[in-house]
Amino acid sequence: MTTRQHRLAALRAHPHILRSILRGIEKEGLRVNEQGQLAQTPHPSALGSALSNEHVTTDYAEALLELITSPHDTVAGLLTELQELHTFVGSKLQGEIVWNQSMPALLPDEKDIAIGWYGSSNTGMLKHVYRRGLAERYGKTMQCIAGVHYNFSLPDEMWGVLGQCGQDLQEQRSKGYLSLIRNFTRYSWLLMYLFGASPAISKNFLQGASSQLSQIAPDTLALPYATSLRMSDLGYQNKEAQAELQLCYNDLDTFIMRMYHAAVTPWPAYEAIGTHRDGEWIQLNTHILQIENEYYSSIRPKRTTGPCERPATALAERGVEYVEVRCMDIDPTAPLGISAQTCHFLDTFLLYCAVEDSPYFPDGGFCQDSKTNFASVVKEGRKPGLTLINQHKETVSLPAWGRSILDGMQAYAELLDESFGGTAHQEAVQAQYAKLENAEHTPSAQLYELLRSTQQSFQAFTLQSSLEHQQHLLASPLSAERLQQYERAASASIQAQQVLEATPSESFAEYVARYERNLTPPLALRS
């Protein structure tokens, strides 16, 4: 029996384990006015405090909403909460809607894009100044791109069943999640091909900069074979300083070591900017990363942090808790930005990545072929004859490799369906074969062709569909009890922020210095 067969048999003998998988969603979306322009209004007080409300907050811009679900043990429960959050938010917006696309709405000049405000407490100011730093380093426009982050965790019992080595559960868990991440890095190009939905942008997004994009409709630019411009060098990509940060997923110690160095190493261009301008903070520090979360990646190993705790320190001390998938575009055809079928596919894909053999990356863990594959697919994934480099250094066609991955996922879809009942996971996998047989079935191709053939602008199409989605959600209002629960949570979050701001504390400069000191050096660097 092969290692793969042994692991599948072990999981089949313990079906209750898969029922303990947890998944959560962080869904971003810009608030826009009824003309589809970025909202210039503050975060609505009816939604609570962006600092303290754990389910409704903002990301970069004041207008960039982020809806955060709790962890759920079923896809149905997950999407029920996500729908409630969308409905609650929609009911509180006055003359505004949530933009249901990853690439931004009509943006004002950069100087007029308001950065998220979280109040005057040290905690709130840290979040705000960090975002000021992002504006200085990358510009505000890029920070207005939105996506769906999918959080995924496997039950602790699973690592022993799979025979994951380690001195204790924490080491087993961390090694298991890094194994998942290595395979995800190898195969995540497939997610971009199957679910990428941002082949076009508004001309306004470029803010006058030149590009290789072609006009396909009024005020609409695109690449003919792109799947996700959001994940291309036009969107969420690491700039010059971060390009030198090559994280390693072979082992947690090396990963943390490289993250630590980036968070304490000055970068000349950022030193030239400085931390203050006209007496005000403009970035937290002049390092390659202000904080660890500044590193842009399609997946992250995560550990819940406490007050003023650094992410790298939490990982070093308590290991990996879950993974955060960050590369998923908003699905413009789904009112929630993601469908149940996509969630079932992601669960199957991530389980496949966790259980399949996952060799270490060579050359210090830099995984260059995987990065090249991903970059090719987001910009020209639907190009006829496109080839990729697989883990054996072989040149393979995208459709052939994609079918091979789907074939391998079938056994995991069956296991999940046996555990949860029904056939949703197998159907989710089966539905993807058609996209590999004919690229015209992909979301990116369908959106590209719709805009090209109708000559409707990206802006007009997205505004219309976003409005229809909001009307659909509001047609099924929350029960009085659920509405009161969300309203009480919003009110409580405002009170929590007020209490925090009224509590005496050290100066902001002292707080930042303490936050910097809380980045604990990796064990190998401690004397």
TrEMBL record:
Q: In which pathway does it act?
A: Sulfur metabolism; glutathione biosynthesis; glutathione from L-cysteine and L-glutamate: step 1/2
Q: What is its EC number?
A: 6.3.2.2
Q: What class of enzyme is it?
A: ligase
Keyword Nucleotidyltransferase in the entry? The reply is no
**Keywords on record:** ATP-binding, Glutathione biosynthesis, Ligase, Nucleotide-binding
Gene Ontology MF, one: glutamate-cysteine ligase activity
State the source organism's domain of life.
Answer: Bacteria
Which residues are in coiled coils? none
Q: Which reaction does it catalyse?
A: L-cysteine + L-glutamate + ATP = gamma-L-glutamyl-L-cysteine + ADP + phosphate + H(+)
* Signal sequence segment: none
Which part of the chain is the Glutamate--cysteine ligase domain? 14-364
Q: Which family does it belong to?
A: Belongs to the glutamate--cysteine ligase type 1 family. Type 1 subfamily.
Q: Which HAMAP family does the UniProt record give?
A: Glu_cys_ligase
Q: What is this protein called?
A: Glutamate--cysteine ligase
Species for this entry: Alcaligenes endophyticus
